[in-house]
Amino acid sequence: MKPQILMSVFAIFCTALYADSFFERLFEKKDGSIKVAQHIKDRLYIKECGSCHFAYQPEFLPSRSWKKIVSNLEDHFGTDASLESEDLESIEEFLITNAGDKTELKAKKFALSSDRGDIPVRITDLPYFKKEHKEIDKNAVKNEKIKSFANCSACHTDAAPGLYEEKAIVIPGYGRWED
Amino acid sequence: MKRALLIATLILVAANASEIENYLKELAIEAKKEDPNFKAFSAERGKKIFFTYGIGKRGKKIACTSCHTEDLTKPGKNIFTGKEIEPLSPKVNKKRLKNLKDVKKWLKRNFKDVYNKEGSPKEKGDVLTYILNQ
């Protein structure tokens, strides 16, 4: 490939990268929201993990938890979720490099709320998760549309873009949540 | 350029289609090894497997239809997590049964989910034939 073509491709690539983060920042400023966790773009993670459940942002758990989870996908909370080794490696890297102990995003509060000696495998077991959800009736989440506290996006309508704002909470069978 | 792209697409489509067909042929050879009387896969037997309840994961009595519903042209829902599942029928969902790696993965996992064991080559072929015909 000619150097000029190579340079143009590189320039377009850089512009696209910059534009992406620029618009993201612009969007966030406009509605005054601060990101809690990332808006996941990793297609393999979305495909392999997000087919069965909400694609949890890696920031919510510390890296030691993700290591434990991916090491036993044959029995993943009672389900065989095993992966081919190349996919497993790629997903593990994504989870570990973005984990709660490697980020400045707000979700790290969840990951860092567990005792250092613990290796939590459920976000819902974390002390900070429990604190944030203590006002929610345990029976309310048994609603067919929610199933359990593990189904983030059932009530947090902005969970996928990682915003988790209070004003975006709509609990099925209950309605909007206002503190 | 356009023609080259068209040809490339056609080759890709043909390659993908035969990938699943070849897999069915492989399964048929395996099935014949296990049972010399085996003739061919049957969508009818596959349907029976798909609709039969087993004691599956977490000790719960489930069938394939518990999540995928009895109409494969409709979306389903994971009964454990509530996550929506796109229709299995390749007629309404063009992405289905195109990628062999995905097909093998789900057949392995979902047999274990419902029956707590992996399907035999005959069972896998029957279920795959049933889904392909929906």
Describe this structure in words.
The complex is a heterodimer of chains A (179) and B (134). Chain A has 179 residues and is mainly α. Chain A has two domains: 32 residues; 143 residues, no CATH class. A two-stranded antiparallel sheet of chain A has the order 1-2. In chain A, a hairpin with a 3-residue loop joins β1 and β2. Chain A is globular and about 65 Å long. The model of chain A has no long low-confidence stretch (mean pLDDT 89). Chain B is mainly α and 134 residues long. Chain B has a single domain, classed as Orthogonal Bundle (Cytochrome Bc1 Complex, Chain D, domain 2). In chain B, α1 crosses α5. The longest helix of chain B is centred in the N-terminal third of the chain and has 33 residues. Chain B is globular and about 55 Å long. Chain B starts with a helix and ends with a helix. The mean pLDDT of chain B is 92. At the A-B interface, loops of A face α4 of B.
Topology:
The complex is a heterodimer of chains A (179) and B (134).
Chain A: H1 3-30, H2 43-50, H3 63-70, H4 85-97, H5 108-111, H6 127-132, H7 152-155, E1 170-171, E2 175-176
Antiparallel strand pairs in A: 1-2
Chain B: H1 2-34, H2 43-51, E1 54-55, E2 61-62, H3 64-68, E3 76-77, E4 84-85, H4 100-115, H5 121-132
Antiparallel strand pairs in B: 1-2, 3-4
Span between termini of chain A: 59 Å
Poorly predicted segments of chain A: none
- Oligomeric status of the shown chains? heterodimer
Mean pLDDT across residues of chain A: 89
Highest-level CATH class of chain B: Mainly Alpha
Q: What Rg of chain B, in angstroms, do the CA atoms define? A: 16 Å
Strand content of chain B: 5-15%
Task: Assign an overall shape of chain B.
Answer: globular
- In DSSP terms (H or I, runs of 4 or more residues), the helix count of chain A works out at 7
Helical percentage of chain B? 55-70%
Tally of discrete structural domains of chain B = 1
Report mean pLDDT of chain B, rounded to a whole number.
92
Structural class of chain B: mainly alpha
Termini Cα gap of chain B: 36 Å
* String of helices and strands of chain B: HHEEHEEHH
